[in-house]
Known about the structure:
The chain has 345 residues and is α/β, with parallel strands linked by helices. It has helices at 17-25, 63-74, 84-92, 94-99, 109-116, 118-127, 141-150, 193-200, 256-269, 302-305, 310-318; strands at 3-10, 30-38, 51-54, 78-80, 103-104, 135-136, 158-162, 172-174, 190-191, 209-213, 219-227, 230-235, 237-239, 242-243, 246-247, 249-252, 274-281, 287-293, 332-335. The chain has three domains: 3-104, 3-Layer(aba) Sandwich (Rossmann fold); 112-131 and 216-335, 2-Layer Sandwich (D-amino Acid Aminotransferase, Chain A, domain 1); 135-213, Dna Ligase, domain 1 (2-Layer Sandwich).
Amino acid sequence: MKKQIRLLLTSSKTLINLGRLESLKNNQKYDFYIVGVDALADGFKLPLLDEQIKVPLGTDQSYSDKILKIVKKKKIDVIIPASDHEVYAISKHEEMFEEIGTAVVCSSFESVAKAVNKASMLNFLKEKHVATPRYVVPTSADNFIKSAKKLGYPKKMLVVKPASLSGNRGVWYLKEDFSGQLLSVRNISYITLEGFTNQLRKITPFPSLVLMEYLTGEEYSVDGLAQNGKPIYILPRVRVSPLPGQSQEALIKKNDEVYKYVAAICKVFRLNSIFNVQLKYDEDNKPKVYEINPRVSATASANEAAGIDLVLFSILQALGKPFPKNLHFHKVRMIRFWKEFYTNR
Length: 345
C-alpha cells in the first residue's frame, strides 16, 4: 500500500499546474492527497486536486494565518509555495509551520528575500563577484533617462521590469524604432524611452525598477535542487520557443558552463531546496542571470521526463525522507500544448 503524503499547493489555479499534479498523482510509491489554495479558487477546480480552497493574495497580511488554519484543519504534511509572493510569506513563517509538524519546500527566508527582488538579487551577486547583466536601479525619472543612455540607449535595446514581480508582469522593452514589429509583435511590449518616462513621471512614489541590457543570446530556464548552498541537481533547459515568462518548447540538455554558473549562484545564496535560475547569453557569449525563483518553477515537472523528479525529491527532502542523489539526466525535449477541461458549474 502506498504511503500517503498530504500536500498543500499554492497558486493552484495557474495554467501550468496540470503537469505538476499529474506527476504527483501518478507516483508509484506515494499517494498524494493534494489541497490546492488560490486567491481565485471560486468556480472550476482541476479534477486532479482533491480539494480547492480560496485564500487571500500572498501579499495580504492575513495570508500566513489563513494558510496555517488550513494546514491544521487538513493535517497537511508539506507545503509547496508556487509564486514569489507566497514563497516569501511562507518562508518568513517557516518555523511556525515546523512547530506543528508541517514541512515547507523552500530555502531560508534570508535567501528567499534576497532572491525574489531583482534589484537586491543583482546587487548581491555583484557584491559576491558573480557575473550579472549590465543594469541600473534608477531612483527617479531623470535618473532613469541618464541610466538608459549610460547603458547604450538608443543604439541598444534595453529591458525594464519591476524589482518585485515575477514572470512577464510589467516587463517593457525600450526601443526607439519598433515600427517593424508594431503590427506583428506578440506578448512583448515595446515602448520608447520618452514614452515610458512620460508615464513613469505620473507614478508616485517612484517605483522600484531594474533597467538592464537586453541579452541577445540563447535563453535558459535552469531548475535545481540544493542543500545548504551545494547543488544536488542542476538541469539546464534551453527555451527553444519562449513566450515572455513561459516556455512553450524547451530542451533539457547538458551545458557545463551553465552548470558552473548556476552552481556559483546556488552557493552565494545558500539555497536549500528546489530553485530556478533564468538566464541568457550576452553578446560576448557569456551566461548572465536575469531572474532567480527560490521555489518550484512553472516547468519543473518536465525534469521527471529527463530522469530526475525534482518536484518529488524536493518534497522528500523537506520531509527528511531519503531520495536518490546521484542520478544522471538524459536529453529530452518538452513541447507544451493546451488541454481543455469541462464542467457543468
